[in-house]
Amino acid sequence: MRYFITFAYDGTHFHGSQTQPNGNTVQAEMEAAFATILREPVALTFAGRTDAGVHAEHMVAHFDFAKPLPANFGSRLNNLLPASIAVRNIQRVNDDAHARFDATARTYRYRITTRKDPFLCVNHTRVAAGLNFEAMNNAAQALLGKQDFASFCRTHTDVKTTICDVREAKWVQESDTEWYFVITADRFLRNMVRAVVGTLFEVGKGRMTPAQLADIIAAHDRCRAGHSAPAEGLSLVEIIYPKNSYLCEN
Questions:
Q1: Which residues contact 29 (CB under 8 A, 6 or more apart)?
Q2: How confident is the model at residue 247 (pLDDT cuts 50, 70, 90)?
C-alpha cells in the first residue's frame, strides 16, 4: 500500500532534505523514526529536494508499507521526530501515485527583511535598505513562461533538461521592512530560486537593468547570473497535485 505524507521542517541545521553521507538530513531523521515505530525500514520518496539551510512549510513524500499503518501513526511520528520536523497529514493513495512525478506545480517564497530581528533570522535574509523593488518586479517578468533556465542551475548536475515553466514570479511587500519573492513553476532546478533571487538583488541595487535579465536567461550560462542568495530566506510553501486523481478509492 502506498501513502503520501505531508510535513514541514526548519532546514537550518540539516544538510538538505535528502539522505547523503556527509551530514544529517530530513530524510534520515524521518526514516529513522519510521523504522522505530514500524520495526522495519521504510524508504521515503520526496516530491523534491531542498539544499542545506532551506526550509519547507509544505513538503510531500510517498512511501510503501504492506500493512495498514498503526493507530495514531502521525502523532507517534511527531513525538519521536525533532522539533524542527512536523508531520501534518498521512493519506492512502493509489499504488502508482508518485510524490515527485505527479506534482504539477511547486511554489517557493524567499523572505527578506531590512531590520535586524532575532525572531526573523531563522527564515528571513537580512538585506540593506534601498532595494528598487519596482525594477526587480519589472525584471521578474522575463522569468515567466516555458524556457531554458540553465543560467540559474547549479553546474554539473545530472538533470536531463533545464527547461521549466514559470507561472508566477513577483515581489510582495508585507510591511515597511519585510518583503518576499514568490515563484511558482512546474519544476525547479538545483539552486534555481536562490540564483534567481541573487540576480534580482543585482537589479534592485542598480548594478543590472531589468532588461538584462532576459539576456541572462538567453545566454544559458550560470556565470552570467548573480550569486546565489543565502539559504535561510528560502522556503518551499506549496506543492500542487491533480485534484483527487492520486487518492485511493478504497
A1: 14, 81, 82, 85
A2: confident
Q: What is the mean pLDDT of the chain?
A: 94
CATH number of 105-237: 3.30.70.660
Decide: helix, strand or coil at residue 219: helix
pLDDT at 243: 81
Active site residues: 51
Distance CA 210, CA 213 (A): 6
Q: Which helix (H) or strand (E) holds 171?
A: strand 163-173
What is the fold of 2-101? Alpha-Beta Plaits (3.30.70)
- Which residues face 61 on adjacent strands? 5, 46
Measured N-to-C along each axis, helices 73-80 and 26-38 cross at an angle, to the nearest 10 degrees, of: 120
Matching fold, domains 2-101 and 105-237: yes
* Amino acid letter for position 173: Q
The 10s digit of each residue's pLDDT in 67-82 is 899 999 999 999 999 9
User: What proportions of the chain, in percent to the nearest 5, are helix, strand and coil?
Assistant: 25, 30, 45
What are the residue ranges spanned by the domains of the chain?
Answer: 2-101, 105-237
For 5-21, b where at least 16 C-beta lie within 10 A, e where not — what string?
Answer: bbbbbbbeebbbbbbee
